[in-house]
Design brief:
The chain is mostly helical and 196 residues long. The chain has a domain of 59 residues. 45% of the residues lie in helices and 8% in strands. The protein is built from seven helices and four strands, in the order H-H-H-H-H-H-H-E-E-E-E. It has a two-stranded antiparallel sheet with strand order 1-4. Strand 2 and strand 3 form a beta hairpin. Helix 1 crosses helix 3 and helix 4 crosses helix 5. The longest helix has 18 residues. This is Beta-amyrin 28-monooxygenase.
């Protein structure tokens, strides 16, 4: 049902683009219809475009609210981390005039806060995996996966001692994994050790 509607929109947009060569691609469908694959110099077909849009819809559903909830959860569980985030934020706020909004330089100063968010994302990834399509036939662990088959990848969660978050320097807190955890902690956005 959703795919049929997406394909209908894609076809309408493709027709508009072909009838009006001067039309500027300002929306996602138009950009995808005009995007050329750098490897084979081909355009995406309708099914590839609809797969990408569905992937974006799935990936965007609740991920922001889940991420914010987990950051707040960790801050509530770890008052010493909350205190450091609060101090960093208050220092930035004190430098602002009354009613003055944050700017990019202010955000760049939020190094500790950003590390807290990154660690929360690593420990509790809001997207637990991703979808892929086999581009060619291949064999994995004795099983042949035919071209065109869809599969999903899942991230593993790190095994941490209950109630502990381990940092790169080995003290309790946030910001990475210690040497003894290296190789066990897996990143929230597709794998690899947390300390790359």
């Amino acid at each position: 049902m959703v795919r049929d509607e997406l394909l209908s929109i894609i076809r309408r947009r493709a027709k508009q683009l072909s009838e009006n060569k001067d039309m500027v691609a300002t929306d996602l469908f138009s950009r995808m219809l005009l995007a050329v694959d750098q490897e084979n110099d081909e355009l995406m077909n309708e099914m590839e475009i609809s797969n990408n849009v569905i992937g974006l819809l799935v990936a965007s559903y609740d991920t922001t609210s889940i991420s914010l909830t987990m950051v707040l959860n960790f801050l509530a569980q770890l008052p010493h981390i909350y205190q450091e985030v609060m101090e960093e934020q208050m220092e930035i706020a004190k430098a602002k005039g009354p009613g003055e909004l944050l700017n990019w330089e202010d955000i760049e100063k939020m190094k500790y806060s950003w590390n807290v968010v990154r660690e929360a994302l690593r420990l509790t990834p809001p997207a637990q995996g991703s979808f892929r399509e086999a581009k060619t036939d291949f064999t994995y662990a004795g099983f042949t996966i035919p071209k065109g088959w869809k599969h999903t990848t899942n991230v593993e969660f790190p095994e941490l001692p209950k109630g502990k978050i381990i940092t790169t320097n080995g003290r309790d807190g946030m910001g990475g994994c210690s040497a003894e955890m290296r190789g066990k902690a897996v990143g929230g956005w597709g794998g690899g050790e947390a300390d790359r």
